Amino acid sequence: MDYEAHRKQIYQPLQAEGVFTWDWMYGEEYALAGLHLISAELRQELAEATERLGAIFTKMVGVIQQGGDELLLELGIPPETFDAVRVTMPVPHATVVGRFDFAPTKDGLKMLELNADTPTGIVEAFHVNGRVCAHYGAQDPNAGAAEQFAAAFGEVMAAYAREGRPTERIWFAALDWHEEDAGTTKYLLEKSGLAGKFVALADLRVLDDVLYVLEGEEMVPVDVWYRLHALEKLVEDRDEDGYPTGEHVLRLIAEGRVAIINPPSGFLAQTKALQALIWNLHEQGQFFTAEEHAAIAKYMLPTYLENRFLGQKAFVAKPIFGREGGAVSLFAADGQPIEQDGEEFYWEQPMIYQELVEMETVEVETLKGPYRGHLLWGSFWIGGRASAINARIGGRITGNLSYFLPVGIKE
Predict the structure, then answer these.
(1) Fewest CB atoms less than 10 Å from the CB: which of 66, 157, 247, 404?
(2) How many CB atoms lie within 10 A of CB 343?
């Protein structure tokens, strides 16, 4: 059977079921039909790295929440969010649904970033990957991982309830016109085990210090809000009259009038400036235990708020809240650009500077023929535990058009 036939057998049923409908994006193939096999040892190391780093980021977020405004500003946190991000964590980990990105290099796995606020790639890892493995009769590295969502969402809901917050009216929100965002949010709603409903972001309203959903002609209050809508984007949200609705919602979050998932602490863990702070403390031999220092040395890269690499080593410049490779630039040690993202977003943000590493390259089949690209591992961090993994393959900057590459375990 040729590649195209395999692809139809895999993705046509998924399309018909309606759970995963974005195997093509922007008119290009996105989800590949081949299977990349890895060792059980690599699978285990991804899990170990995820949990060890997750504990470090959680520890740091707890400290930052007690810090002053100056520290938050240094980390690039918008002032409009200061009160909201200081809302203490209702659970003993920085976020409910997060994803670490790791590059496989000659020196082992190296963490590039953490998306602790609004990660995607979820349906691909937790649902689609298993279907592709079944098609080829391979072992799925993510078998059973989707069961973690109910436990993680249940834990944060119980924590909010213990704080005396109302938790009955639960809404999961995303851009309803964005196929991937809406599909991801609906999948999480199903797997969360919560008695919630999906709502378009456009149908949320703020009135008299209450967040509402416009459901038909009725305004229904929101007690708990899962949002696939980044907190830094909320800062910018305004209604048609120019009223800063996003800032109003942030005040409601700070005052405990609406509970959000991911919690505000996830936004603190998201800033790449936190990686620079962790690395700085590590270099000084401060704050962390010996085991934590060992994990940082093994899995993290030298990262700074100022460029210490020029004239010394090749480096990457990244916006602190960028996504999908937006505004990322690669430079040689002498400062000559190697590659630069061509998208228009995130260029206005402060940058961090990180050592450039050579990522592993693999060759895959696509509808356009063989393609050799750079491999990036996503490792999900759900309810404080390592969870499903996914692989992306693309250019040296892993962008929006990088392929999703299904993964199986070697027998």
Answers:
(1) 66
(2) 16
